């Protein structure tokens, strides 16, 4: 069973070389970013009305960085092309990878929901954090591979709420009362 | 003599119970963050910067240095027990540490890590006290041309060495430099790339960006994995092993010095110190075949190499204002927040501070020894907390950390944006350290380039003809050209010919 889990697990080997087609897509991103930055730098105000030295225009370094980005993006595209980006399609997503993507989407949504919606819009920090921590613990339990852990009984709800409330209050008190840091 | 007297004064200034308690607290938080896989020294320092913002500068920086040393030390436990480096710097400890743990010697391996970390940090501290004033004196002769190359050299080196793909490393460095250009520039207060958005005029603040890149990205990485790893049970003693320090004294000394010297290179990171020490120990060992299979020599080399690189990284941060690694970049930013401006003028404006940092780093090494003696087993309980509980709490801390420095909600949004971006970039093989170096060195690069062009009246010649500039330019361009296959082949041929010549010369003499 453990072996099966390891095989199906979507452990992302960060040191493994990435597929050439993936690098080609990245190259396109870098070149586009470089071109947009270059246009932004060239059209940036040159402050001629202030009679500044022309070698000190604000767009100088951003423009040079943009050129370097376009060049390196081009090299990345060329390298991925030579490694077969045009002929080798991206490998199809395994069940493990699909599960991993689902987890990423859920966790990112929880974090963004907390940072963009709950925090700083009138709800007290400790309450916003309690809602987020409790909600996250429960949602992540539901995503577990272990059937027993997936079950959300009354004990699981109480545990999640106690952990959420106590951790939020401790963080709030330590930062605000002990170290005098302003909270969002 | 003046230096020695300053050092004694610095030591004396930390001898009050409250300050020592702060130091222990910093080391404790650092060790816990280091133990937790993925949470790095960078994140520990960034979060503690906000927590200690109201403390006295010397107390706040003591906490940060203790957490820096503690995080790297704590990371070795995860490498030994889980085969996952607690921080990037502990990757070299995984192979031998985990192999020893599987042989039932997990406590023994942790004991070696403790003694190695303590002794090597002290080796680094001696170098910190000796080299920082010397380097600062040399740096006084640096002008805009030299600082331009130094900044570029830092980003290029970081891109080349961190990770497996220099091309992606340089692209990340460029992105960091570009992000640093957002906001009001320093010469004419002109708003660059702000799109009439007032919040952006302040630029992308370093702490929220780092909390995103190292905090949120790590929360996503940890929780994305459907499988949670279990730690190896530890039954033997975890006490520091001093006898092994004596037995492997040459490894400790060699790795300590390699660590410090790799630390001196801008942007290289602590892991380079560990890997280079490991490779040197393997090359010098009589039993190289045991490396990777539970070699004590290998584990000692990796642990001493990364720990001694901490003081090594602090040296250029203090003397040049150019950080040696991502954690030292945050440390430098924290120093600026607390009113200390690192750089060549530091030894003139604030000479006592350098010796205070020496005393702080010594205290940090004593703090990790304290936790190595009394806190190994209790602290490991943190690894038993399920990630489903731990990571949401870590994200709450990240949010507070991003917000608290400037009390701006905008910084929370920056943290979210950079965090999600960093997560996807990391999955595609892009490392974060060059981005951090770019963010830190971007303003210096911009200012130096424009000042230098004014001084030279637009001529590029001084960038290549002034002696120090020429040296930095040569190394930077050489590093980039090594990526060109034809040039690399030429260098290899030249190297082989040179070695063959030396061998032939010694052969004739023999």
What does this structure look like?
The complex is a heterodimer of chains A (184) and B (510). By secondary structure, chain A is mainly alpha-helical. Chain A folds into two domains: 20-82; 95-178, no CATH class. Chain A has helices at residues 2-8, 20-42, 60-82, 95-118, 125-142, 147-150, 154-178. The longest helix of chain A is centred in the last third of the chain and has 25 residues, at 154-178. Chain A is flat, with a radius of gyration of 25 Å. The relative contact order of chain A is 0.09. Residues 1-12 of chain A have low confidence and may be disordered. Chain B has 510 residues and is mostly helical. Chain B has two domains: 2-176 and 231-389, no CATH class; 473-510. Helices cover 74% and strands 1% of the residues of chain B. Chain B is built from 23 helices and two strands. Chain B has helices at residues 2-13, 17-35, 41-51, 57-82, 91-102, 106-139, 144-161, 166-180, 206-224, 242-247, 249-264, 270-284, 296-319, 326-337, 346-349, 351-374, 376-380, 387-404, 409-427, 433-455, 461-465, 467-481, 485-509, and strands spanning 183-184, 191-192. A two-stranded antiparallel ribbon of chain B has the order 1-2. In chain B, α2 packs antiparallel against α3. The longest helix of chain B is centred in the first third of the chain and has 34 residues, at 106-139. Chain B is globular, with a radius of gyration of 22 Å. The N and C termini of chain B lie far apart (48 Å). In chain B, 61% of the residues are buried. The model of chain B has no long low-confidence stretch (mean pLDDT 88). At the A-B interface, α2, α3, α4, α5 and α7 of A face α8, α9, α18, α19 and α20 of B.
